[in-house]
Amino acid sequence: MNKNKLDSLKAESEVFDRIYNEFVVKSYFRFTHETFICFVMEYMYGDFSQILKSYGCFEEPTARFYIAELILAVEHLHSLNIIHRDLKPDNILIDLKGHIKLTDFGLSDICMKMYKQTKRKTFIGEENMGDFVNNLDEVLSPMLMNQISYTLCPESKMKSKRSLNINRKYNNVVGTPDYIAPEILSDSIGYDDNFMGPSLDWWSIGVILFEFLVGIPPFNDDDINKIFQNIIDHKIPWDLLEVGYGEGQISPEAFDLINQLLNPNPKLRLGTRSVEDIKKHAFFIGFL
């Protein structure tokens, strides 16, 4: 096995040992077999990339529910100084009760290096989750997956997700093109790199919320370099969508939350100062 890959897997294994949270997938134990490191994880129903392929997009209450759980998962990671850096539907799993489980910490290498320096296990944040989880269990029935409402989106005017023709100037980019924050791209070509912390994950959550409601990420294109340029130019196709409270529309609250999460200036991006700013947003009134 490639040494860098082996080191990455060892680091990811240590991160799993540090995290204990209702909305992060559990790794029960690991073992080696020949040239492989095997992770034994809790059983999951599937991931949100598969769900979106099947159903197109979500009704707003459903999107709110899952984004709220994702925010709580990311809040827990940030409390441990872990920046995920690769949030996307593929890395958001769903369990048999219909709750999300965040996974894949392979790109959070900067934070994992810190944890290699200690053998102490820490389990933080569970006390912040209890009330929310209890409230969800009261609202949701055991047949959650059968009752959640999905919307089959009409054929989108935007292009489907693909990965092609990456340009040399972006060789150092870490992440998945559609979900990468603009400061990562700016850093790859020599600009300011002072804000490479939690704001990266809040940007990705803004992209995911848009995708949950619309069916495709906001900056998508056939060509990776065009995706990157769309991100740098902040080219969100709001002109293809309607904002309002009618059928097939995005509510003004969702519109505002997405715009604040997708602020190209990481210093001003919602969540950079405090996750409480996201929780108090009008989109989550009565929910978070």
Describe the structure.
With 288 residues, the chain is mostly helical. The protein has eleven helices and seven strands. The chain has a three-stranded antiparallel β-sheet. A two-stranded antiparallel sheet has the order 1-2. Strands 4-7 form a two-stranded antiparallel sheet. A hairpin with a 5-residue loop joins strand 5 (92-94) and strand 6 (100-102). Helix 1 (3-18) packs across helix 4.
Would you summarize the structure shown here?
The chain is mainly alpha-helical and 288 residues long. The chain has helices at residues 3-18, 48-55, 60-79, 109-115, 126-139, 144-147, 182-188, 199-214, 224-232, 252-261, 276-279, and strands at 27-33, 36-41, 46-47, 57-58, 92-94, 100-102, 150-151.
Could you give the topology of this structure?
Blueprint: H1 3-18, E1 27-33, E2 36-41, E3 46-47, H2 48-55, E4 57-58, H3 60-79, E5 92-94, E6 100-102, H4 109-115, H5 126-139, H6 144-147, E7 150-151, H7 182-188, H8 199-214, H9 224-232, H10 252-261, H11 276-279
Antiparallel strand pairs: 1-2, 3-5, 4-7, 5-6
Helix pairs in contact: 1-4, 3-8, 8-10
Helix count?
11
Give the spatial strand order of the biggest sheet: 3-5-6
Query: How large is the share of residues in beta strands?
Result: 5-15%
**Spatial extent as radius of gyration:** 19 Å
In whole angstroms, how far apart are the ends?
A: 44 Å
User: How helical, in percent, are the residues?
Assistant: 25-40%
By DSSP, the count of extended strands is 7
Unreliable segments of 5+ consecutive residues: 114-168, 189-193
